[in-house]
Amino acid sequence: MKKRVYAIMGASGHIGSAATRRLLENGQAVRAIGRSPEKLKELQARGAELYTASFDDSEALAQAFTGCDGIFTMIPPDMLQADYRAFQNQVGEAIARAIGESGIRQVVNLSSVGGHLPAGTGVVLGLHFQEVRLNALSGVNVVHLRPATFMENLLWQVDLLRSQGIFGEPYKPDLKIAMIATQDIGQRVADLLLSLDFNGSSTQELLGQRDLTMPEVASIVGQAIDKPDLTYVRFTYEDYGAAMAQMGIPQKSIELLNELYRGINEGILEPAEPRSKRNTTPTTIEEFVQTVFLPAYRA
After folding, report:
1. Do the Cβ atoms of 94 and 55 come closer than 8 Å?
2. Are 108 and 73 in contact (CB under 8 A)?
3. Beta pairing partners, 52
4. Residues 82-129: pLDDT tens digits?
5. Which residues are paired to 168 by β-bridges?
6. In the chain, what are the helix, strand and coil shares in percent, each to the nearest 5?
7. pTM over 0.85
8. Are 68 and 104 in contact (CB under 8 A)?
9. Phi then psi for 198, rounded to 5 degrees?
10. Vertex 209 angle, CA 158 and 184, to 5°
11. Residue 259 falls in which region: left (phi positive, over 0), alpha (psi -120 to 50) or beta
């Protein structure tokens, strides 16, 4: 394969770093874009070229995108923003401007399950608007990846388990939820960029290895941390909001998160595709708990 040049936004994050490593392992040139050079040093040591940029700086992003064969774009999930929806729009507009200014033609964009819905999805709604924004760009081929709930979201349970000995979320206990490890999303990003075989505007859902109820997840976690009797506690939206507020999450973000949970619980926000070989990914919840959750719990 001819050596190509790619730009990866959020290269220090779970998805971006996995995509960057995969591309470098395949002998490609990668521009690793992030806000902190310190967090990108490991990728630089592997051969990536570092680009420091604020994600709402369209000029800096355009500079990083120019001359690339393909790029990965994302709006970072920074729930500490005072107005998260406004932040999503600001970053999304900067990305769209940078794509237009750079002349890039092949874009893999991170969206979410529910990205097709125009209301009732909480934090996902900003990703819907970004899909619309990028689809409107002339001459740009874009594939929107719509992954399910990240397994990494379970890591907030670590402090809860340590302090209170409980495992809880606002999800209904009998609800089957698609959950995915972010490394699998990064692998799909890299595969799409390596092939560059997408045209027009398209979407791909990624649904993890299998659907799970939260009591099933609690049981798997309990076995791993030597608490075999661990059970799932369903939080009320009010209790969840209070817990988020104690962690410093702004009220507007809490409202969006609770709208997300309501949308999932009420069947508004669910996968649009049936599970298939294409949207099923390899990492199991058992593997994730052993390799990611357990080390975090023991740290």
Report:
1. yes
2. yes
3. 34
4. 999 999 999 999 999 999 999 999 999 999 999 999 999 999 999 999
5. 233
6. 45, 15, 35
7. yes
8. yes
9. -110, 145
10. 75
11. alpha
Name the 3-class secondary structure at 49: strand
Give the β-pairing of 141-147 and 106-110.
Answer: parallel
Provide the sign of the torsion angle of the four alpha carbons 34, 40, 46, 47, taken in this order. positive
pLDDT of 20 higher than 80: yes
Angle at 20 between CA 58 and CA 121, to 5 degrees: 60
- Asked if residues 205 and 279 have their Cβ atoms less than 8 Å apart, the reply is yes
Closest by CA position to 122, among listed 109, 112, 110: 112
Question: Which pair of tokens denotes residue 170?
Answer: 């606002």
Sign of dihedral through CA atoms 260, 262, 265, 271?
negative
User: Residue 179 has what DSSP assignment?
Assistant: E
Q: Are 237 and 172 in contact (CB under 8 A)?
A: no
Element holding 202 (H helix, E strand): strand 201-206
The alpha carbon dihedral of 260, 265, 269, 270 has a sign of: positive
**Percentage with pLDDT > 70 across the chain:** 100
Report how far apart, in Å, the C-alpha atoms of 296 and of each of 40, 162, 229, 267 are. Answer: 21, 11, 20, 32
Determine the Cα–Cα distance for residues 299 and 289; give it in Å rounded to an integer: 14
For 255, residues 6+ apart whose C-beta sits below 8 A from its C-beta are 122, 241
Q: How many CB atoms lie within 10 A of CB 126?
A: 23
What does the alpha-carbon distance between residue 205 and residue 129 come to, in Å, rounded to a whole number?
17
What is the rounded CA–CA span in Å between residue 89 and residue 101? 18
271 neighbors 111 (Cβ within 8 angstroms): no
